[in-house]
């Protein structure tokens, strides 16, 4: 049994080392970042597209660009594609006045990147009279010989605005998973405290220790989240985001637990009062972190009923880092909890001896 404990601890450390190595070493995949310039002419429209890690200079002759109408009825190929540098290209296109839609999606294909799509916003562009259209042709149905498949190399996904800060995902989200596990331990221990006629000191210390360590991971979640917000949203905190505010409220609720225990002088009633508080605190945590994000709008990715776990937010490459990170941090958190519990038990025994 002792050997198994050491193996689990070693596994936790190994997983965290692996996660940090992957976060630092795995490159980010290519993507279209923004449209930096639009010029309208009588016969055509010029667009300058800014990409990320696109290496347009590598194979400029293989690049083809298309504008697809928002209703997917018309696909119009750009008649001129000029490479400005590795991450910028200039496109020239004429859009038919027969199109019902004024909104278009930019799609770029090249031998190095495969398909790149400007996501998620549509762009509004003027139409030109007398322009022939490729009506009804989807870009996927074009001649396979002139369309290049995506190069399958291991990388993290490119997401607009988030970009490099996606590396924070395996460091930020697992903090909340670990906090949830530890607060669940405190919740169960608190129920046991209330169910017994006589105060079970060990269960009280379990709840106390788990809450202390869980609160630490809550603070780490807030710190990593704030750093991520600064990189993605250019602000240390976005007060309009209910998920951010819910996380902050949850941490303050559990901070109130620590203050409650520190301020109470009645040793006989403190465990039961603290147990009741812990039960309500866990219910608040569950509502604010697990339920509310599924029903409210948020700046966080993945707000379609499954926060941060949709196929668009968590690709296979991210899964190879994210899940080991969750397991690793939970193991580390439980290890810290066990150490804290042993300290609290020893502290309790010493205090009792001093009292007698």
List keywords for this structure.
single chain, 356 residues, alpha+beta, Immunoglobulin-like, 5-stranded antiparallel beta sheet, 4-stranded antiparallel beta sheet, 6 helices, 9 strands
Describe the 3D structure.
- This protein is an alpha+beta fold and 356 residues long.
- The protein folds into two domains: 31-146, Immunoglobulin-like, CATH 2.60.40; 163-355, no CATH class.
- It is 47% helix and 15% strand.
- The chain contains six helices and nine strands, in the order αβββββββββααααα.
- Strands 3, 4, 7, 8 and 9 form a five-stranded antiparallel beta sheet that branches. The protein has a four-stranded antiparallel beta sheet with strand order 1-2-6-5, with no helix packed on it.
- Strand 3 and strand 4 form a beta hairpin.
- Helix 2 runs parallel beside helix 6 (316-355) and helix 3 runs antiparallel to helix 6.
- The longest helix has 40 residues, at 316-355.
- The protein is elongated, with a radius of gyration of 27 Å.
- The model is unreliable at 304-308 (pLDDT under 50).
Q: In a few lines, what is going on in this structure?
A:
This protein has 356 residues and is an alpha+beta fold. 47% of the residues lie in helices and 15% in strands. The chain has helices at residues 2-25, 169-195, 201-233, 242-263, 270-291, 316-355, and strands spanning 31-40, 45-52, 64-69, 75-77, 80-85, 88-93, 103-110, 114-117, 123-124.
Structural classification: alpha+beta
User: What sort of overall outline do the alpha carbons produce when their principal axes are compared?
Assistant: elongated
Mean of all residue-level pLDDT scores: 83
Estimated share of beta-strand residues: 5-15%
Q: What string gives the helices and strands in order? A: HEEEEEEEEEHHHHH
Number of H/I helices = 6
Largest sheet: 5 strands, antiparallel
The structural domain count equals 2
| Helix proportion | 40-55%
Number of strands: 9
